[in-house]
UniProtKB/TrEMBL annotation:
InterPro entries: F-box-like_dom_sf, F-box_dom. It comes from Elysia chlorotica (Eastern emerald elysia). Pfam families: F-box-like. CDD domains: F-box_FBXO36. Residues 1-22 are annotated as: Disordered. It comes from the Eukaryota. This is F-box domain-containing protein. Gene3D superfamilies: 1.20.1280.50. Residues 127-173 form the F-box domain. The lineage of its organism: Eukaryota, Metazoa, Spiralia, Lophotrochozoa, Mollusca.
Length: 216
């Protein structure tokens, strides 16, 4: 069951965490699996953000090995603001989250359906390990993806767009694709002025148009 309460703030670790058994794992096994991936505050996942339009509420989503917490601060104009109005908080264990239409509806209305899908997958025990790796390791892994996968990942968030557009990733893609065999003085200038991503695109076009068509 969820618990709805009103409070002015939320501490780093929510109170009254309830024991939970993740599907296929005992509670202790699930906690052991999560522990290496918890952040400094003990969260498996947390997001603080402003709601998508037309709402302007501020919210916090918190997931630890035991529970899901959604806290919402309604942003009001100074004329309507009440000094007695605090944050509204919903807390539930993993199993309860599946059966809480009000809590799920609030999250979806403030974040969109993709966030709710992500939370459902996370609570099934499918941890997103890539998010928890250092940026250098993330870029190394991304550099082994094909171009379509890199483009798809870049569209998931501003953070991954920055990584996927980085010179580190595109330099590795450039050399791994064999385009370095066609490096020219002009392309070297492009690297200096526009970076490796633009250089990759230009070199790929040059190679494509320079390759003679095969006769059938």
């Amino acid at each position: 069951m969820s618990r709805k309460s009103s409070k002015s703030s939320v501490s780093g670790r929510p109170s009254n965490a309830r024991n939970n058994v993740n599907k296929g794992l005992t509670s202790s096994e699930w906690v052991a699996q999560c522990t290496p991936w918890l952040d400094s505050e003990g969260a498996l996942y947390q997001r603080q953000d402003v709601s998508i339009p037309p709402l302007k509420d501020f919210f916090l989503i918190w997931v630890d090995p035991y529970q899901v917490v959604f806290t919402n601060w309604q942003i009001q104009s100074p004329a309507k603001m009440s000094s007695h109005r605090g944050a509204i908080c919903w807390e539930t264990d993993y199993q309860g989250f599946k059966n809480e239409p009000e809590m799920r509806g609030l999250i979806e209305s403030r974040t969109g359906p993709a966030e709710l899908d992500f939370l459902d997958v996370l609570l099934q025990g499918r941890i997103n390990f890539l998010d928890r790796m250092p940026p250098k390791l993330q870029m190394l892994i991304i550099s082994y993806l094909d171009i379509k996968a890199v483009a798809a990942l870049a569209g998931t968030s501003k953070y991954y767009k920055k990584l996927c557009y980085s010179d580190t990733v595109w330099k590795a893609l450039y050399h791994r694709s064999g385009l370095n065999a066609n490096m020219t003085a002009g392309l070297l200038e492009t690297v200096e002025s526009d970076g490796w991503r633009v250089t990759y695109i230009m070199a790929h076009r040059i190679r494509r148009f320079a390759t003679p068509l095969r006769r059938s």
